[in-house]
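2024-03-11 09:14:02 INFO worker-7 job=invfold-0412 stage=load source=structure_tokens
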């Protein structure tokens, strides 16, 4: 029994000297995989009556984004997009604010793409892909809302290698705005003065 324990102690000591770690030690921790990029739509509020609202579509946590094609869905009974502008950090981009994803004759999505030849990087601080301006649909009755869905079609680096990406939708809330008071015009009779010569 004594010799067996002595032999085991020698083997463990040899393992520690040769391998640099004691036998039975846990393997080194694997390096965590980088988190996926996130493409997200912002939340906002439209007032009826009231002006349009511009909301960004943003990305975080992406190194050297080369190209992205993204579909933003919405309820056409509640809102409609009136403008779409790409971030000038990207070299080129296209935006279709009248995209009909189900071919029923009613526009119900915004389809856009942006391209950067040198790559655009984003960390924790979001980087805007595009800004979309929204207007309440005529006849919509507040309170109402529409969810903004985000579907990423392509998302690659500058070498056209696909990058991991997740999405997060947004919401536009429609609330009652302040109706400006009507102007009241008061018409007074015209008074003329006549000078009578003495």
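2024-03-11 09:14:09 INFO worker-7 stage=emit residues=198
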């Amino acid at each position: 029994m004594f010799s067996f324990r002595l032999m085991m102690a020698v083997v463990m000591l040899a393992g520690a000297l040769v391998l640099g770690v004691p036998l039975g030690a846990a393997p080194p921790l694997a390096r965590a995989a980088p988190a996926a990029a996130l493409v997200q739509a912002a939340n906002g509020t439209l007032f009826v009556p009231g002006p349009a609202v511009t909301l960004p579509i943003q990305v975080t946590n992406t190194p050297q984004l080369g190209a992205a094609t993204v579909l933003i869905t919405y309820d056409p009974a509640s809102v409609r997009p009136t403008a779409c502008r790409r971030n000038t950090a990207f070299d080129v981009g296209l935006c279709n604010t009248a995209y009909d994803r189900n071919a029923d004759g009613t526009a119900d999505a915004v389809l856009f793409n942006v391209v950067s030849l040198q790559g655009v990087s984003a960390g924790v601080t979001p980087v805007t892909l595009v800004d979309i301006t929204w207007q309440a649909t005529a006849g919509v009755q507040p309170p109402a809302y529409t969810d903004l869905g985000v579907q990423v079609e392509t998302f690659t680096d500058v070498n056209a290698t696909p990058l991991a990406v997740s999405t997060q939708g947004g919401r536009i809330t429609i609330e009652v705005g302040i109706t400006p008071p009507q102007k009241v015009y008061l018409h007074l009779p015209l008074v003329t003065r006549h000078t009578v010569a003495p």
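2024-03-11 09:14:09 INFO worker-7 stage=report msg="The first strand starts at residue 37 and ends at 41."
2024-03-11 09:14:10 INFO worker-7 job finished
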